[in-house]
Amino acid sequence: MTSISRRHLMLGAAAAAALPPLAFAQGAYPSRPIQLIHGFGAGGNADVVARLVGQKLQVALNQPVVVDIKSGAGGAIATGFVAKAPADGYNLVMLTGAHTVTAALRKSLPYDSVNDFAFISTVSAFPFVVAVRAEHPAKTLAQLLDMARTGRVSFTSVGVGSTQHMVGELLSATAGVPLLHVPYRGGGAPVQAVIGGEVDVLSDTLTVAAPHIQSGRLRALAVTSAQPWPSAPGVPPVAATLPGFEVRSWLGLAAPAGTPDAIVQRLNAEVRKLLQLPDVNKALLAAGSVAAPSSPEAMKDMVQNEIARWRGVIARRGIQVE
């Protein structure tokens, strides 16, 4: 090898060493398909939004984004899988509000709900609706709570430890009235239990409840957003009866901890762009949600705050921590 070629090699190596960290990774990412994982059923809110986001990211990143369902354990199976995946930006998870409830309700998980993730951005936000069957004597939330003070009022959810369960418990704790939780396994069972008169109150998403409200089989008493919700016209917020009450669940993207910041920032920028598209906003609204982008730091703070809040509810209500 000549001295000139050696010199060129040495200069090249020096130049490479002087480049900012991850300069090569920045230029290459993404160079192969990305896997977007969630832990809930096909056709549900998480699945619909994951596929919507995946489709738009695929165009923006010029690489396939494959949505993969790893259901079970309230989303914890999917979350745990991504927490242990390589931190290279090719394994993403669509987290839901259940992520913070699970963290508050479980003594131990196979992952740290905050520190094992590089949070990218929240994607959407949505409230829950408090509803009763059409024939129920309570016409307002205030009347329902008065009934709970003098007799038994039950509410249902898609399972112990679900966000829907926690909404009912928070309502009970805030109002200072007893509400009996009657959990079901999910699917259409909670709605049918309320419509059939087996349980008094439904605590669920508008995605689930809206068709039955529109058909007249359910009566919406309140939404859990601080203000009236655009896809639930005429339904007052719980805060109109219980000032300060607010529960808005969410969906958001995260990657394994240690994912290069350049990749996190790139994905955050692309999520922000896609959430400005009219067709995306229309699809989210149809599902009872609104676009809710955030910075990675804001998403991390939100997750920490939500875990603390649900831990407080669990302690106040004396719910057993597993």
Describe this structure as you would to a colleague.
It is a single chain. The chain folds into two domains: 33-126 and 248-317, D-Maltodextrin-Binding Protein, domain 2 (3-Layer(aba) Sandwich), CATH 3.40.190.150; 127-240, D-Maltodextrin-Binding Protein, domain 2, CATH 3.40.190. It is 43% helix and 20% strand. It contains twelve helices and ten strands. Strand 1, helix 3 (45-61) and strand 2 (65-69) form a beta-alpha-beta unit.
Count of individual domains: 2
C-alpha termini separation: 67 Å
In total, the number of strands is 10
Spatial extent as radius of gyration: 23 Å
Low-confidence stretches: 1-26
Query: What global shape is seen?
Result: globular
| Helix-strand sequence | HHEHEHEHEHEHEHEHEEHHEH
Biggest pleated-sheet summary: 10 strands, mixed
At the fourth CATH level, what is the homologous superfamily of the largest domain? Answer: Bordetella uptake gene, domain 1
The top-level CATH class of the largest domain is Alpha Beta
**Assigned CATH architecture of the largest domain:** 3-Layer(aba) Sandwich
- Let me know the average pLDDT: 90
Structural class by sheet pairing and helices: alpha/beta
The number of helical segments is 12
Map the helices and strands:
Layout: H1 3-18, H2 23-28, E1 34-38, H3 45-61, E2 65-69, H4 76-83, E3 91-96, H5 98-105, E4 117-133, H6 141-150, E5 154-157, H7 163-175, E6 180-183, H8 189-195, E7 201-205, H9 206-214, E8 218-223, E9 248-256, H10 261-274, H11 278-286, E10 290-291, H12 296-317
Parallel strand pairs: 1-2, 1-3, 5-6, 5-7
Antiparallel strand pairs: 3-9, 4-7, 4-8, 4-9, 4-10
Helix pairs in contact: 3-10, 5-12, 7-12
